Amino acid sequence: MVREGDRPSESTVLITGLAARYNVLKNGKRQITALHVPGDFVDLHGFLVKTMDHAVLAITPCQVGTVPHETLRRISENQPHLARLLAVSVAVDAAIHRQWIVAMGRRSALEHAAHLLCELFVRLQVVGLTTDNSFRLPLTQEELGDTLGLSTVHVNRIVQDLRKEELITWRGETLIIEDWSRLQQLAEFDPTFLSLEAEPR
Amino acid sequence: MVREGDRPSESTVLITGLAARYNVLKNGKRQITALHVPGDFVDLHGFLVKTMDHAVLAITPCQVGTVPHETLRRISENQPHLARLLAVSVAVDAAIHRQWIVAMGRRSALEHAAHLLCELFVRLQVVGLTTDNSFRLPLTQEELGDTLGLSTVHVNRIVQDLRKEELITWRGETLIIEDWSRLQQLAEFDPTFLSLEAEPR
DNA sequence: CGCCTTGTTGACACCAGTCAATTCACGTGG
DNA sequence: CCACGTGAATTGACTGGTGTCAACAAGGCG
Fold first, then answer.
1. Average pLDDT over every residue of B4-12
2. CATH architecture, domain defined by B1-78
């Protein structure tokens, strides 16, 4: 969808599908830095900053909308209310990044994975993409590893642990959270950072 | 400076000193998610999002300026150009967060540390706080560990490696980069993400 | 039916964490 | 001016979590 070094002239809103922002190191290792669900701007960054320091990948086939930067600029000059919403969107992205940093730095692999699943569940719930306690998670274990900063093999072990603890079921692309309460507790997950409370902005 | 859960009514600009944003887990582990140098807004987040999901700590004594959110709101409604600068500031913060994620997930501890030092050097250079190849780094190894997501002991080992390789000298609060080129190469550091190029915004 | 991606397993290596003791650097008070 | 106290840095021994490698199983798809 976007390549590192690009200087896009429009920004992309994800409508359906799952997308990821990532960087690749010289040794070939890849780190996914953000997952985007429908409703997210995947590259507002390019509007504010000009040259992309990362790439964006469609994990599944995606439907997207595009907004020329010119339009964004006009909007943000004439409609401060909407400009503010864009800024909030960037700020929430940043808040999610910080939670990932906390998880990578100070949580075990198991807790980290649990935290990510909690985050995804809540974010998908907000946009109506969960049913009961389940959602579609169309990630391979390799992609999940690149997201968590773990090796594929270890992701596999962790997923099995989560299953063994009867916290989740994950078959094909369907992930079921079997015990939200314990999963949340394990992850020490506090959704505050997603800033979902309805309040005037 | 700010506590988690706060709902500040003003934002803080760092004028002198070093500040950090951090989270603490129930088990007592702390993760620093951002370091702020003079010129940075340390809690624009609180302006956009209302309730702080993290705390802010003054690492050294700091001089700060405060801007009431009310003022920020007025500015961003009447001066789209300035509003945009605020948004860019948030976006650059997010870009830095992403680089930390990459470093935590896919770089070795040594590379990660080298990357952070490169980042700090460049950021401090921009605000004129470097002299030659050195800058003040008033962090304890424990704080550096909480920043990198490493234990204190391991930080010590890593710092010694950097010294042994004659990449840096670090005595007291003064850090000297002895070989920028090799340090940058080790870290695979590309300053693009800091988005320093002068260009119209 | 047979490829090819994905998932799974086991053995082993190694990076980084933990614990505990020791040294060092300073600032303070006598 | 020196003894002491304190936080920071350093060291060593050991543990353990995660990575790596390599093989094999399981599905999905042409």
1. 90
2. Sandwich (2.60)
